[in-house]
Design brief:
Elements: E1 7-13, E2 18-21, E3 27-40, E4 46-58, H1 59-68, E5 74-87, E6 94-107, H2 124-133, H3 141-144
Parallel strand pairs: 4-6
Antiparallel strand pairs: 1-3, 1-5, 2-3, 3-4, 5-6
């Protein structure tokens, strides 16, 4: 059976990122998003609900979050769910918390307080941060791909791309 653990959320930061460092110097950022949902009830009444999601970022993503994200800023996070469990030191009870481990982020909205006064929707260091977090994932199928130098096994079925008439 196949498994999938993928989360994609867009929301606004509820607080400034909290950045910590491991003894080896790797950054860890804790952030929280408020994700709003508007819906209409059966009686045509508009309602809004807010879901709060805790997110942890590691390495370069944590550094970017600490440098560019501020409370209220919209952000797109891609990642996976993780259940953290621990023993509460005060009560001795088992505790758990579901959160998202961020594996990618994209800064949304315009710049605030940048060198150009925020009038430019992007540019400079803001664009550099966006490029840093939009790395394409490694391609696993590249090593399983057959050699491009061997001739087609059956000329009628396995034609080269350039030989297709349309």
């Amino acid at each position: 059976m196949a498994n999938l653990n993928k989360v994609m959320v867009i929301g606004n930061l509820t607080r400034d990122p909290e950045i910590k460092y491991t003894p080896k110097g790797s950054a860890i950022a804790d952030i929280a998003l408020a994700i709003n949902r508007t819906y209409t009830t059966d009686s045509n009444e508009k309602r809004e609900e807010t879901t709060y999601v805790d997110i942890v970022l590691y390495g370069r993503l944590a550094e970017i979050a600490g440098e560019y994200l501020k409370k209220g800023r919209p952000v797109y996070i891609e990642g996976r769910l993780k259940l953290d469990t621990w023993d509460d030191k005060q009560t001795g009870q088992k505790r758990s918390k579901m959160r998202v481990v961020g594996e990618g982020l994209q800064l949304l909205g315009g710049r605030e307080g940048g060198r150009d006064g925020g009038s430019n929707g992007g540019g400079g260091e803001y664009e550099e941060a966006d490029r840093a977090v939009r790395r394409p994932p490694p391609r696993a199928e590249a090593s399983a791909r057959p050699s491009q130098n061997r001739p087609p096994a059956d000329p009628d079925l396995d034609v080269e791309h350039d030989d297709i008439p349309f």
